[in-house]
Amino acid sequence: MRIRGVLFWLCTLTISAAVFVGFAGQFHPIGDSFAAFRLHFGAAAVLFWAWAAFSGRLWAERVGGVTACVALGSILWVAIWPRAQEPQDGITVFQHNMLFRNETIDAVVAQVAQLNADVVLLQEVLPEHRVHLEQIETYSTIQHCDRYAVMNNVILSKWPALQVGCHNRASWAQISTPVGPVTFVSLHLPWPWPASQALAVDRLIPVLSALPQPVVLGGDYNAAPWSNAVSQLASVADVVSVPGLRLTFADPRFWPGLPIDHIHMPRGWVGAAHLTGRAGSDHRGTFATIGPLPEPVGIR
């Protein structure tokens, strides 16, 4: 009984520590790594809270209850606020990490063509994949950066590009849209810790800060929406996330998924988004409709 009690104590404290470390990304990248699994740790805290309540372990019940409330409460807040609002005549954007070793590229091309988004932001695009993407006659502009192995990022657009650029973690294009010039960025970051996400963010910040406004970011951030890395990028680019919580990484080992792919729109815009199919990738795609609010009509 004593051994069981010690194990229960250790498991409860471990789950609680995992949740609260996930709030410390601004101090160390390991925080953002734990933050990506907040949903899983929160679910585990609920189970241990129920077990503690059933077995009469008051201290564990309190610790598990607080941990579950903090974890799931922060997730719920992101999921429901702000409210999604699809703009009239908005810009449609499709973002997808298509997986460099995807053996069903035809399925990716078919999904892109079927969704028919105004702008497409793709990650992990190999040079040989471009041949397939160029078959989609809808898109007159294809911005690609082929010098970065499997981390290539591609932008497809129905509208012409005014200027373009490359970075080792992103490609960007300022596009002439019906609402004026908008800079679109397709980016792909490494995992936080023990990988080099923090360094990649530090190197990407000067690039984003120099881009012409307004900016739309989209890609595989390998970071949760509540992470420090996402907060840094959003602040520098002056963007906000398209509302909602989307579990985009669909590897069954991490069921029900991880919310690590995002689309960010200019501050002051509104938008709504939904998940699409995987098309042979380990990520689901995200289809969003975004746009500025109409200017209020003055009272005469």
Can you describe what's shown?
The chain has helices at 2-21, 30-35, 38-55, 58-80, 105-115, 130-133, 197-210, 228-237, and strands spanning 91-97, 119-123, 141-144, 153-157, 161-167, 170-177, 180-188, 215-220, 239-241, 261-266, 269-275, 286-292. The protein has 300 residues and is of the alpha+beta class. It has two domains: 2-80; 91-292, Deoxyribonuclease I, Chain A. The strands form two sheets. The protein has a six-stranded mixed beta sheet with strand order 3-4-2-1-12-11, with no helix packed on it. A six-stranded mixed beta sheet has the order 5-6-7-8-10-9, with helices on one face. Helix 1 packs parallel to helix 4, helix 3 (38-55) runs antiparallel to helix 4 (58-80) and helix 7 (197-210) packs parallel to helix 8. The longest helix has 23 residues, at 58-80. The model has no long low-confidence stretch (mean pLDDT 93).
Question: What would the keywords be for this entry?
Answer:
35% helix; alpha+beta; elongated; Deoxyribonuclease I, Chain A; 8 helices; 300 residues; 6-stranded mixed β-sheet
In short:
This protein is an alpha+beta fold and 300 residues long. Helices cover 35% and strands 25% of the residues.
CATH-defined fold name of the largest domain: Deoxyribonuclease I, Chain A
Number of strands: 12
Broad CATH class of the largest domain: Alpha Beta
How large a portion of the residues is in β-strands, by DSSP E?
15-25%
Overall spatial form: elongated
Distance between the termini: 79 Å
Low-confidence stretches: none
User: Structural class of the secondary elements?
Assistant: alpha+beta
Estimate the mean pLDDT confidence. Answer: 93
Order of helices and strands: HHHHEHEHEEEEEHEHEEEE
Give the total of domains: 2
Q: Helical segment tally?
A: 8
Assigned CATH superfamily of the largest domain: Endonuclease/exonuclease/phosphatase
Rg value: 21 Å
CATH architect. name of the largest domain: 4-Layer Sandwich
